[in-house]
Structure formats: C-alpha cells, structure tokens
C-alpha cells in the first residue's frame, strides 16, 4: 500500500462509524427540536412536520412510506400535531374519502423559527470551513440521500404483491 492509497475496507469502517454517530446525534437533536415545537411532542414529530412543510400536503400513508415509520407511530404523531394546532387535516381533493395533512400557519411559523436557529448554529459551527467545503458536504450528503431514496423505492416496489 502506498502512502496515498486508501484502504477501501478501512474507509467504509470509518464511514459507518461516523454516520452512526451522526444518526445518534440527529435523533437527540430531533427530540430537542420537537420539544421546542411543543413540550409534549417526541422526536418523530419534528421530522414529520418538516416533511409536510417540504413535500406536503401528504396523506398519512405517504408519511409512513417516506419516513420509514410504522403506521401507528405516524398516526399517533399526526393526532398529536393536529391536536396542538401544528398540522391541519383537509379532505383530499382527488379522493374526498381520504385526508391530506399540511402544516398549519402556527406549525409552519414555529418550524421556520427552529430551522433558522438551526441554520445559524451550523453557520457558527462551520464558520472556519471554506464555503466550498460546506457546499461539497451538502452535495455529498445529497448523493448519499438519493441512494437511500432509491433503495427505499426498490424495497417498496418489491413489497407490492404481483398484480397490484
């Protein structure tokens, strides 16, 4: 092995370790952010509200698929967010029997405040990084997320019984 060569196995071991740490921190941060939205919310609620803001309006079933959570967890979180006035339910314009969910004005405003504070924290934490490095990190994370999205889409297709 030359001085510049990278051991692929060691690189993947380090990647797994660092992503694991990032995910553990992310869960802790999500729990804190959910409490900032409202003291009675748990961590899953923050991600649910953020997804509704970014991709909504969505049906509860869409949330289950996109978040990879079980139906009962999503149902409980949606009920809590609706009860607290952070999410609105309306009839689906394409199917009046179904409901679609979107952030309420209050939910969107609270989420925007939390996201602004979070961005400010990132700017502070990474102030010593060149802007090009921050942009590169964002591009690499986007590539990684696209791989995850594709894998989820494949597993959803594979779980659909033939003929459906």
TrEMBL record:
> Domain HTH marR-type, which positions?
12-146
Pfam families associated with the record: MarR_2 (PF12802)
Tagged with keyword DNA repair: no
Molecular function (GO) terms for this protein are: DNA binding; DNA-binding transcription factor activity
**The entry's keywords:** DNA-binding, Transcription, Transcription regulation
InterPro entries membership: ArsR-like_HTH (IPR011991), HTH_MarR-typ (IPR000835), MarR/SlyA-like (IPR039422), Tscrpt_reg_MarR-type_CS (IPR023187), WH-like_DNA-bd_sf (IPR036388), WH_DNA-bd_sf (IPR036390)
- What biological-process GO terms show up in the record? response to stress
Q: SMART domains annotated for this entry?
A: HTH_MARR
Determine the domain of life of the protein's source: Bacteria
Xref: CDD domains: HTH_ARSR
Q: Does the keyword Glycoprotein apply?
A: no
Under PANTHER family, the record lists: MARR-FAMILY TRANSCRIPTIONAL REGULATOR (PTHR33164:SF57), TRANSCRIPTIONAL REGULATOR, MARR FAMILY (PTHR33164)
What is the recorded name of this protein? Answer: DNA-binding MarR family transcriptional regulator
Q: Which organism is it from?
A: Blastococcus xanthinilyticus
């Amino acid at each position: 092995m030359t001085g510049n060569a990278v051991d692929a196995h060691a690189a993947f071991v380090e990647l797994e370790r660092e992503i694991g740490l990032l995910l553990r921190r992310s869960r802790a941060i999500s729990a804190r952010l959910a409490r900032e939205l409202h003291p009675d919310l748990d961590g899953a609620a923050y991600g649910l509200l953020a997804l509704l803001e970014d991709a909504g309006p969505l049906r509860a079933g869409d949330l289950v698929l996109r978040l990879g959570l079980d139906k009962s967890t999503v149902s409980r979180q949606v009920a809590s967010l609706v009860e607290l006035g952070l999410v609105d339910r309306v009839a689906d314009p394409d199917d009046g029997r179904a409901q679609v969910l979107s952030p309420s004005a209050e939910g969107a405003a609270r989420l925007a405040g939390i996201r602004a504070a979070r961005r400010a924290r990132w700017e502070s934490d990474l102030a010593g990084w060149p802007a090009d490095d921050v942009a590169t990190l964002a591009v690499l994370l986007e590539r990684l997320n696209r791989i995850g999205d594709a894998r989820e889409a494949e597993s959803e297709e594979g779980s659909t019984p033939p003929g459906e």
